[in-house]
Amino acid sequence: xxxxxxxxxxxxxxxxxxxxxxxxxxxxxxxxxxxxxxxxxxxxxxxxxxxxxxxxxxxxxxxxxxxxxxxxxxxxxxxxxxxxxxxxxxxxxxxxxxxxxxxxxxxxxxxxxxxxxxx
Length: 119
Known about the structure:
The chain is mostly beta strands. 10% of the residues lie in helices and 32% in strands. The radius of gyration is 18 Å and the shape is elongated.
């Protein structure tokens, strides 16, 4: 099954749907993203871009509220905190300090800029 994201205003993902792979096949039996996007457009209108559940294309699996960045050809999740920066290689947000690796669960405290042990 293929997945397609509907892109709305400001390139924000509105929704993601599943499309049967047969809808992507051209006359030679090769998958074509454009055919899947056309199928979605014919059903629902709008602009559609393929996304990959396992991240094989466009860096991340699209989700509602993600941004499609055409210059990076990537889906970028919403920025969780103002201090976090985008990793250009993965198009994922990173905290100013790495997540601790001691096996405990932590949550980010934006005010102090630190990871705090979760209760």
